Amino acid sequence: MIAIDHRFRIWCWLAPLLLVLPLAAFAQTNAGVGFSPITIHDPVNGGTMPGYVFYPSSQASRVTRVGAYELHATRDAPPIAGTKPLVVISHGHGGDDLEFRNMAILLASHGFIAATLLHPKDNYLDSSGNGHAAVLGGRPIQVSATISMLLNDPRWKTLVDPNRIGAAGFSAGGYTALLLVGAVPRFDRLMTYCDENPADKEGICEFLKTLPAPDQSLKSYLGALQKKYTHWGNPDDPRVKAAFAMAPFSVVFGKDGLATVNRPVFLYYGQNDHVLIPQYNVLHIAPLIKSLDGMKMVPNAGHYVFMGPCSPQLAKHLPSLCQDPSGVDRAAVQRQVNADALTFFRKTLVTPSR
Questions:
Q1: How many CB atoms lie within 10 A of CB 187?
Q2: What is the rounded distance in angstroms from the CA atom of residue 301 to the CA atom of residue 326?
Q3: Number of other CB atoms surrounding residue 63 within 10 Å
Q4: Cα–Cα distance between 285 and 115 in angstroms, integer?
Q5: What is the per-residue pLDDT across 157-182, written as a single tens digit (0 to 9) for each?
Q6: Helix or strand or coil: residue 28?
Q7: pTM of the predicted protein model
Q8: Helices within 68-120 (DSSP H only)
Q9: Which DSSP symbol is given to 340?
Q10: How far apart are CA 194 and CA 169, in angstroms?
């Protein structure tokens, strides 16, 4: 439930303007990387969800174009045999299943399986589910469905260690990752937040005004949302052993809702995030997570620094999405974030947890 994303509705026709960073900029690889598209059953809406799996390969990586993106990975390259830790990456609201391709490729080049998915009704083509239970409660269920598919599919089950699984995500995806390791939201916290922060114009509060039907109060809407939140199952997935959350939507988590998080969590945020203000999001939840493994701030950066650098054309059309304050090098930030994700998951997943 993030009011940032009317800008993403034109993402679909601006996506070809993205400037894609070469993987070589992130780290020296230990292996080639292969990738394959996957299709996942969506237990929330019915139908299917597209996604990708990235994996280590003995075949050297080559540049492969997929739509608007260049991937430094070889489609359907032969995988290196043996089970490996898995990280599933959840995109932000209005994003897509290749939003964090470079993180996935870096992880795969260092011995991980990395999977992505396109969250239905919360992506660059269709954001109609924003603020509804099918997204706020359904996102983690869709990640769990991705994990189950990989563990049961004949092609992938011999490559994934079921005891070494993690989740990563940005913004709404960071919220998703936290749910998967036990965080429990209270949506009525949104009303308290907006009552105390009437000047919040870029993030949550302006969007809240659009949610209730004309004959429904915001309080009743949020109450109904809370009741339906677990309609599709418990978002807490015990198979997920660690969570890496970038600028997560987390104002909905209180002390009680974070008391059940007992797996390692790493938090990342931009110092000047005006969309999900750190004081009420990341900095609010950090001291409440007993299993917090670490936290980093990107100095002077805003919310979108975790997304890919923009071409001049995209920056012209969506300056708020693309422009960073003076002194913030978005490409360098992403190199560091991805390297930190690799370090975190090496620490928390590479040693089998039985």
A1: 18
A2: 9
A3: 12
A4: 27
A5: 999 999 999 999 999 999 999 999 99
A6: coil
A7: 0.91
A8: 101-109
A9: H
A10: 25
